[in-house]
């Protein structure tokens, strides 16, 4: 019995396909999970990892294919159903209830009751017992928001285990944990593994993959590249499998980034500090130079971008533009100084969804002109059409609401919006996140040509290959601080990785 | 060190005590046991409505229809009992069922069509008020033996105080709501939805059932309060309870429930109602102040508590 | 050339957002014409026009003013429930000044408008600077405001005699009621301010996505504050013409329930309550629908108390028609029906 189970997959997805408007997100993908293994699902942004996870946890319906749990065909139509079947997801942003106590979070919907009344004491006791397995000794009656993200994540895993999960789906669980917290998490995963639970692990930290995983499945552009035992796939091969040919072409033209002879500084930041987000950061961006900024989520790279655009104000330190000290209290101040920012979260901070492409492009220019100098719809249209043509934005006309475009085209519109005010410094925060490979290449090409035209760029990105491809220098952030500045021969994705990982 | 979420509650309690002491020093007979029981009896219907509102606000919603539902159920009772001669014991369940269905309908519109609670319940308010006016524009008196019997019954308390029977019913409702909110799974779901309804859904909370249940409960309690009100006034009138929704919201917020949902206490709402009641009592004792001063005072108090919530929230996010 | 433009005009009309509200209005007018063939007749008598159309326009003036402000507030993603109470305050301020003092009409009007702007400032500050939800922030003033108006009036209905002031509510200019001219004036000014400058675009941007607007350098707080100032102004003006119409200030009843009428008008005009795209002409079309409905109920002899009921149902119906889920269900049902 035991043997038979270990030979057959506990959880098997076969020939899963999913079509989104304009994109084939998944194309006949297979994925297997055996009991008692940690299986890493890897791929670049847009490879289809999150779509696959959403399908197996019941968030999205599949177009075709089959899902089997213990040889039984299942089709969970929502997360609650998937959880009942034994598939428990744990997300990067913890999806628990911060306002409820830890114990209540663990037992919500399954509280111990007597005569219909919840027995709070009993529940707290049960919670303590459960968390003991996770070596968590915390006050379970305190609300969850009281605790760090790391503890919240462990509580989320504990909840899954308590609900008799057979399959744990961990989507970037380590993104906001420090190294000792990661060690604790991995200890617990090893223990769960020994208890026969199958664990799906998604991460972008490759070293962690080798620390904990037994097998790796790689996806690229919605297609299955392969399933490998960990020993068969050394790091170099893994990266090759993940990046494939397409990106090679993009990076193929790299390294021509001519070392600027001697350029005058456009932006000088000295000892900038924003409480809780930026700690004593200094950096320079020269005219016509592209500076990259690397670091993990929460390392402070987005926060530096925000401070430079006047969204967060400095508590101390100085920002100079063309050697002149400036105060940036609001985005309008930054725009006055010729600074533009394409924000990280395109959906909430970038696009104005229901408005047309025309209006989305014209808005920054309109803000700069002032509300009383109205740019007429005709002029807006001319401006928009110009960019639609030169950036190859896929749309019938400029009146289409921006929310109906694909991610890549939306990003091009946002870029157009800022280029319309002819900024001297363009800050791009994760410009290629969630963008298909074609638009990706176009945007990288655009960044390069802007540099050649003499514009200065500061680009924050978690895609190291991308940074290496176009940046003259790369600033590495960790724990809100600048920890390294790499250029010339020392600039490679390996060296950036080393600086990020504190090796 | 007191937990931050208890601060508004403590503030309300202190204010209540301070008002009571000030009133006691200023006026003879203010600090009497009778005034306390009167606080309970005079605000019984408001307390019942506010208890329902507590559930709604805990879930992150709002119910603007309660005052109108109070009026509608009062008018229904009065017309059916006085004009159609139906027995009250048949009328009350019927009115409660109508109220519950009304709330179920509003909850369904909110949940299934993702409409904003305020506009749905605003429409509900106009609908219920319109229905009440259509049934009878005049105040309808109720003459029924049951009403006299209930009015005369009660418990004598020490200190010459008298607790009428319907105040006892209200205390029972309070106890029931306390258990429902703090000791039932449904109560947990209410907090969960108010905390983050998406997460709650992911954690398997039955959002549809709970959301509809919350609004059904609120309307049920409002209908119940409408029945109570007929015992208080011996009549039903389509214009009763105008502005009661704000009083109820104010009581809930002053009682320490977060307007954004997810945090609060049933007993806090009791304190909130008592504090508002004592302001009214003070103004009556004062004599020279007009009753609309109470409106303004409660508005200001509500504002102060909302501001307090904002400040506490902000400092907790930073800390 | 001419036919070509008219052709494209008809085509555009069919696609435009005007088609449904216009159809509703026409339907109601036709219903009325069937009841009474002279429904739309206008005649000239004693230097002024009379007739149902004039009457509808005149009576809809307060709601029309409220709807202009409400359109913009809703476009920013907010709501103003206090407009009725603000009408009461502005009316009370003017009435008391007229009764108790000798100040000029101009001063009275300035004081009335200023009281409305102050209310708008309070609402706007609560919403944009304290971050209180618009429903709650304006609910505060909705109830407190009537108390304040009562206080000003000392609980009485304050009546006054002032020909100049009354002219604003019941007088005529060129044979047409002054109220209609006032609405037209406010409409034209607000339309010019919003559509011939970038303000309208900024309002829509803030309403669609206030965070992204901030990243664009738009001061979303100021935009929201301005919107509440506008509703305060419009409500005050509505309060003034209402007081002028009855030569008195009745703090309990003036503007009662009108907040729903104004919201309903905006919703009938097709604007989403979640904010974003707005159109003042469409909202005014919504106002006309509501007032024609009122008049229809009156003329056809139905009890006027049905008004509240019908409006409540209309709000829910329009919201449902706007909801994607409902539309899908309807088209699904229609599909099934066709198959069977």
TrEMBL record, chain A:
Where is it chiefly localized? membrane
Where is this gene product found? Cell membrane
| UniProt keywords, alphabetically | ATP-binding, Cell membrane, Membrane, Nucleotide-binding, Repeat, Sugar transport, Translocase, Transport
Q: Which GO terms describe its cellular component?
A: plasma membrane
Membrane topology note = Peripheral membrane protein
Q: Where is the ABC transporter domain?
A: 11-246, 261-503
One GO molecular-function annotation for this sequence? ATP hydrolysis activity
InterPro entries named in the record: AAA+_ATPase, ABC_carbohydrate_import_ATPase, ABC_transporter-like_ATP-bd, ABC_transporter-like_CS, P-loop_NTPase
- Know the name of this protein? Sugar ABC transporter ATP-binding protein
Recorded source organism is Idiomarina rhizosphaerae
TrEMBL record, chain B:
**Where do transmembrane segments lie in this chain?**
6-27, 39-58, 64-82, 89-113, 161-180, 212-232, 238-258, 265-285, 291-308
Look up and give the membrane topology term.
Multi-pass membrane protein
Protein location: Cell inner membrane
Could you tell me which InterPro entries the record lists for this protein?
ABC_transp_permease
Per UniProt, the keywords (alphabetical) are: Cell membrane, Membrane, Transmembrane, Transmembrane helix
Give an example GO cellular component term for this record: plasma membrane
Q: Superkingdom of this entry's organism?
A: Bacteria
A GO molecular-function descriptor: transmembrane transporter activity
Q: Report the family membership.
A: Belongs to the binding-protein-dependent transport system permease family. AraH/RbsC subfamily.
Q: What is this protein called?
A: Sugar ABC transporter permease YjfF
Q: Tell me the name of the encoding gene.
A: yjfF
Automatic annotation (TrEMBL), chain C:
InterPro entries noted in UniProt: ABC_transp_permease
Q: Where are the transmembrane segments?
A: 18-40, 61-79, 85-114, 126-145, 165-189, 225-244, 256-275, 282-302
Organism for this UniProt entry: Idiomarina rhizosphaerae
- Amino-acid biosynthesis among the record's keywords? no
This chain belongs to the protein called ABC transporter permease
The answer to keyword Cell membrane applying to this record is: yes
Q: Name one GO molecular function term.
A: transmembrane transporter activity
Q: Where is it located? A: Cell inner membrane
Sorted alphabetically, the Gene Ontology cellular component annotations on this record are: plasma membrane
Query: What keywords is this UniProt entry annotated with?
Result: Cell membrane, Membrane, Transmembrane, Transmembrane helix
Q: How does it sit in the membrane?
A: Multi-pass membrane protein
Family, according to the entry, reads as follows: Belongs to the binding-protein-dependent transport system permease family. AraH/RbsC subfamily.
